[in-house]
Amino acid sequence: MIIVLKPGTSREQVEHFSADLEKRNGVKVNAWYGEHSTVLGLLGDTAGVDIEAIQANELVESVKRVQEPYKKSNRKFHPDDTVIDLGHGSAIGGGRLAIIAGPCSVESEDQIADIAREVKGAGAAFLRGGAFKPRTSPYAFQGLRAEGLELLRHARAKTGLPIVTEIMSPAHLILFEDVDIIQVGARNMQNFELLKELGKCDKPILLKRGLANTIEELLMSAEYIMASGNDRVILCERGIRTFETMTRNTLDISAVPILKKLSHLPVVVDPSHASGHSWLVEPLAMAAVAAGADGLIIEVHNDPPHALSDGAQSVTPDEFRRIASHVEEVAGVFGKTLSRRDDQE
């Protein structure tokens, strides 16, 4: 249920009214303070809430029930866009286009440090790199694990780029205390116990859509994180499994405007996993920006043919530089600027 209060309602009145609603109805009230109005979102069992009694209150402008099962991620509860800002120019949302770039897997200190310098120079505001790697085959490279996280931290120290890396188990949370953005991969999108634990973290969570999950299921997974206390969620469209075999997955470009309409959370697109082919990364990235994406996550490797994982979809630093330049041009057409890390190496 959503309650829109009349303009001019004081914060003290909002707090008193919210406390009364919680006491009388056994619900949780979230307040959003906008420039022209205040919106209260009632979470919990609202079936027995007396709408007429609420409408009769002199502070209330309107009341309506929300049919969607996701509440905290719903734009109706939070009309303004959420912006994830890590400072020094590294921000996702708010009229800026953020590029997250780096290798699929961290392979060595020189590799991740060199790529970090290259992508930062080309316009990336965040560094991605896999330390823990979920692989279809148990015999494939699984990542350097804790050592990989340490190498990511070394690359951050050299470039200033915040690091984005994937977690696979709640048991690993202690290792991620110094990670800037924790990524939840497609295979773990509905690992609800993991999502609930991440909801207790004070870190942004990049949540990837599952291989065969609907948009609503993605938003419900975001709801798990937010319901546990963490509102700093970034949604990621990374392609879904269809009958098409020409690409690794099928990029659901329509998911971008749909998510932007339904939710206030920032939306990024992964053209690398969506396509599985390095030559497709640029056109898909440009399409994603034109569709309204707040960011891109692109796999970059200095020697793709010899990458330990996903070399076929990784672009070289030179190719990334060209892609970043082109997507910046597209973003400019729609009034967006590129997020750029502004601190010195």
Measured as a percent range, the helix fraction is: 25-40%
- Strand fraction band? 15-25%
The arrangement of helices and strands along the chain is: EHEEHEEEEHEHEEHEHEHEHHEHE
Low-confidence stretches: none
The total of helices stands at: 10
Form type: elongated
CA radius of gyration: 21 Å
How many DSSP E strands? 15
- N-to-C CA distance: 48 Å
Strand order of the largest sheet: 7-8-9-10-11-12-13-14
Q: What does the main sheet amount to?
A: 8 strands, parallel, barrel
pLDDT averaged residue by residue: 94
Class from helix and strand fractions: alpha/beta
What does this protein look like?
It is elongated and about 70 Å long. The strands form 3 sheets. The protein has an 8-stranded parallel β-barrel with strand order 7-8-9-10-11-12-13-14, surrounded by 6 helices. The protein has 345 residues and is of the alpha/beta class. 32% of the residues lie in helices and 18% in strands.
Give the structure's gist in a few sentences.
With 345 residues, this protein is of the alpha/beta class. Helix content is 32%, strand content 18%.
Topology record:
Blueprint: E1 2-5, H1 11-25, E2 28-33, E3 38-43, H2 51-55, E4 60-64, E5 84-85, E6 91-92, E7 96-102, H3 109-122, E8 126-128, H4 146-159, E9 163-167, E10 181-184, H5 192-198, E11 205-208, H6 215-227, E12 233-237, H7 255-262, E13 267-269, H8 271-275, H9 278-291, E14 295-299, H10 317-333, E15 337-338
Parallel strand pairs: 7-8, 7-14, 7-15, 8-9, 9-10, 10-11, 11-12, 12-13, 13-14
Antiparallel strand pairs: 1-3, 1-4, 2-3, 5-6
